Amino acid sequence: TGTRIGMDCAALLWGTILLACSCGPGPPRVGAAPLLAATYVLDDSNGLGREFDGIGAVSGGGATSRLLVNYQEPYRSQILDYLFKPNFGASLHILKVEIGGDAQSTDGTEPSHMHYENDENYFRGYEWWLMKEAKKRNPKIKLIGLPWAFPGWIGKGENWPYDYPDITAYYIVSWILGAKQYHDLDIDYIGIWNERAFSSKYIKLLRYTLDKHGLEQVRIIASDRLWEPISFVMMIDSELHGVVDVIGAHYPGTKTVQNAILTGKKLWSSEDYSTFNNDVGAGCWARILNQNYVNGNMTSTIAWNLVASYYEELPFGRCGLMTAQEPWSGHYKVESPIWITAHTTQFTQPGWSYLQVDGHLEGGGSFVALTDGLGNLTIIIETMSHNHSKCIRPPLPNFSVVPQRATFYLRGSFYMVETLQVWHSRLDFESGKSILFQQLHPVKVWRGRFSLDLNVDEVYTLTTLKTGWKCEFPEPPPPQPFPSNYRDDFNIRNPPFSEAPNFADQTGVFEYFVNASDPGDHVFTLRQVVVQRPITWVSDADQTISVIGNFKWVNMTVTCDIYIEKPRDGGVFIAGRVDNGGIYVRNTKGVFFWVFADGSYRVTGDLAGQEILMKGLAGVRDNAWHTLTLNIQGNSASGLLNGYPLWENVTVSKPGNGWAALGTRSFEFAQFDNFHVE
Questions:
Q1: Residue 542 in contact with residue 666, Cβ under 8 Å?
Q2: pTM of this prediction?
Q3: N or C: less crowded end of the chain, CB within 10 Å?
C-alpha cells in the first residue's frame, strides 16, 4: 500500500528537520543564532490534571450539513469516514447537533420535530441520520443537542421561550426521547438556548423533567454564550449549581474567568473555530486545541462547523473542518483542519486525564500531555505563529514564536517509557506545500529524557500508542458547477429525507408532501409548512424562501407550478439572481415574480417586496394550480403565467447574479411542483 515509500520519505524528512535546526554534536553554523533551549517535566506522581472530555464539531446552527445528505455513494460514506471513523481521519469524540427550530440559524433553517403543538415527527431534517452515521462508525461518540430557535407555538405568540418553561422543557425532552425511541440514539448532553439568554427557572425545570422521564444520565451544559453571567449566578444559586454539569462558553479566546474556575465544574469551549478552512484555519485550530486547556482549563473544544456542506456564498462559507458542497459532482476536499484534529483525537479518548503542567513553551507555542492512567502517554505540541493562526474571533493579541529545542523529562510512571511514536505536521505558508499528519521515526527516550527541535508553525504528537493511521481514499471526482439545466418534479413515494435535494431553506421549511386529494398531476409536491413566525435566533424574513443553484448564474429561466393554499392574502413567488441568505436573509435582493390569492401580481427587486418594478392583475386564485415562468436576460426580465406572457421588458440592474428561489408571501401553507431552472 505504499507504506514502505512513506517510511522512507519520513526518514529523509526527519533528517532534513534535524539538519535545518543546526543541531547535532558539532558547533552551530557560523553566524547562526544559538537555538533557544528549555526543559519541561512530565510527572504524574503528584496526581493528574483535569479529566479530558473530547474534541468535537457542530452540525447545525444552521443547515451546515444541508448538501452532505445528497452526495452519492461511495463519496458520502468517505466524507463520514474522514469525520467519524476512529484512527482514520478527524476521528471526532463528540458530535453536537442543532435541535431544529424552523428558523434561520446562520446558513439556513432546520426543521423542528414539532412544527405545531399537536405534531410530532422524528424523521425530519438530517441530524438524526448524521448522528446514526457517526454512531455507526464510533459507538462511543458523545452526542449533544442544542436549540438555536423554537417553533412559534412554544412562546404562544411571544418571541421568547421562557414564558412557559414547562412547555419548552417538554419540547426538548420529547426530542431526546424521540432520538431513543425512533433511532436508538442516547443523547449525552443537552444545552439551553444557543448564544441567547438563559433562565435559571427553566434550567432547573429541564433537569426535573429529564429525571421524571428516566433521563438522569443526560447532562446539562449552560449557557453556550459567555462565561458570565452563568458562572456568577451558579455561585450564588446552589440549586442551579447542582443541576448544571458543564459550563460551555463560545469563542473564549483560550481564556476563562475566575468565577468559572471557582464553580469547580467542567469548563468547555462548546463552540469555537468558525474560521475559513485553509492553512490559517488549521493554525487557528491547532493553537486553540492546546491553548484552550493550557490558558483556560477547558477540557473540550467543539468546532463550528463539522463540514462545510452549504452553498459557499452563504455566510461563513467554508468554515468547516472539511468541505463537501458539491453533491451534484461528488467533489469534496479533506482540508488541513481534519489532520490537525487527528493529532489530538487519534491519540486520546474522553476519560483520559491531562497532566499537571504549565504547557507554555519558552520560545512560544504550547504543549499538553494526557494519559489514560494505564501507562499510556500522549504529548501534543504546537508552535503556531500569530499571523498564521488567527481565528475569526476574538481578536488575537500579539505574540512571537521562534525555533527552539525542547527537552522533556518523563517522571513518575512514565520514567520507564522507552520509545514514543511521532506524528508531524508543518504548515508551509511560503510554498503552500504543507506536511500534514505524517508519521516519522519513533523517538528513543533515554533515561526518561528526549529532545526535539521545533520549528515555527508545526504540530507534533508524541505517543505510546501505535494505533495512529492516516487513511486516504482515491481522489473524489473533480469539481463541477451546479447543473445549468436542473429539474425536480418531487415525485418520490418514500423519500430518504424530508427535504428535496439542493434546496436550501432560508426562512420557513419546505418539505416533500403527499397531496392525497389531488386527482393525479400533483400528488407529490414540495410544501412550505411553517405557518407561524418562530421564536427566532436572528431576524428571519417575513416571507419564506428556499434558494437553489449556482450563485454565479446571470441569465436564467425559472419555471414552477404553484398552489396558494391561503385565501384572500396568500401569495407565492419564484425568483432569480437571489443575492443573499443566512443571517442576512431579510436584506435579500433579486428578481421576484409574485402572484397573490386576490388575483394580482408583482415584480419586485427584493424579498421584502418594497422595491416594486411592475404590478398588475393576473387572475390567479387560491387552491388551484398555476404555472409561473420567470425569464432574466441581461438587464431585462419577463414573466409568463400558464405559458402566456403576463409582463415583459422590466429593467433589472442589480444584483447581477445569484441563485434561483421559491417561497411565500408570509408564514403560510403553499405548494410547488415541477420546478425547472435553466
A1: yes
A2: 0.95
A3: N
